[in-house]
Design goal:
Blueprint: E1 2-5, E2 10-13, E3 19-20, H1 22-35, H2 43-55, H3 65-78, E4 82-86, H4 92-100, E5 105-110, H5 113-126, E6 132-136, H6 139-151, E7 158-163, H7 170-179, E8 181-189, H8 201-206, H9 208-220, E9 226-234, E10 239-247
Parallel strand pairs: 4-5, 4-7, 5-6, 7-8
Antiparallel strand pairs: 1-2, 2-3, 8-10, 9-10
Helix pairs in contact: 2-5, 3-4, 4-5, 6-7
């Protein structure tokens, strides 16, 4: 880890190249220990899922605990029954969603068979495998099949969507997801701000992930199906942010 000193704070960069600041991490840790203490019944399952994913060589790029709990609380506030996730990794977010919302079901898409296997093991260990469906394969192949099942009344529409997959396909995933949602459903797309690179046309020319983020923002801005905003965040992971959208009634 490297750091550079400045007048306002010390910036650190971890092995993933993420910008970090000890104040961001300290605030996350302080607030989380009070608002979701070790006595909560899902803490052990959540921590075990991270340990199991790491032991199996999965990258430690899962959502931060505060982010995942925020999603779970939003589902609780909206009384969401069905969630779509694009990009399972080790299953950390679905465990949060289902342990905080006992009537909620998650459909999660994962292209990597190893990630899917580890996630299934984590769901079994957490006792929520009966409410989480993993669909393996490319997301852009799975989403049309889900739409067909909805049209055939074999599957319910979704009230919440979280997209955290290959960034070059952000818009394609989002476009499909909106078609599968209920009116007033909420959609989040992760890693949109990415340490401020969103605003840089030069970065977009060099980095397809930044180009994917900018394409999403620009196309969502003219999409009459939704209303949206980009939210910048700092925390124990890095300086980043989401695009949050709501499906118009």
């Amino acid at each position: 880890m490297t750091s550079t000193s400045g007048n306002i704070f010390t910036k650190e960069v971890n092995l993933y190249g993420w910008e970090q600041d000890p104040r961001w991490t300290a605030c996350d840790q302080y607030s989380f220990q009070h608002l979701h203490p070790k006595s909560r019944p899902n803490i052990a399952s959540l921590e075990e899922s991270l340990d199991h994913a790491k032991a199996n060589g999965l990258p430690t790029i899962e959502s931060a605990p505060i982010t995942a709990k925020m999603f779970a609380l939003q589902c609780k506030a909206q009384n969401v029954k069905h969630v779509l996730e694009v990009g399972t990794l080790g299953g950390y977010v679905p465990i949060w969603l289902t342990t905080e919302n006992p009537e909620l079901r998650v459909t999660t898409l994962e292209v990597n068979p190893k990630h899917a296997k580890v996630a299934r093991e984590n769901f079994e260990r957490a006792g929520v495998s009966d409410r989480i469906e993993i669909i393996e394969g490319p997301g852009l192949e799975s989403l049309p099949k889900i739409q067909a099942e909805i049209e055939e009344d074999k599957r319910s529409k979704f009230g919440f969507v979280f997209i955290d997959a290959d960034k070059g396909n952000n818009w394609a995933y989002f476009d499909w997801a909106v078609k599968l949602c209920l009116p007033r459903a909420t959609l989040y797309v992760d890693n949109i701000v990415w340490m401020g690179t969103l605003a840089s046309e030069e970065e977009a020319k060099k980095d397809p992930d930044v180009a994917g983020a900018r394409e999403l923002v620009e196309k969502v801005g003219i999409d009459s199906r939704v209303d949206a905003v980009v939210i910048q965040t700092v925390g124990e992971k890095t300086y980043d942010g989401w695009l949050m959208a709501v499906v118009n009634p």
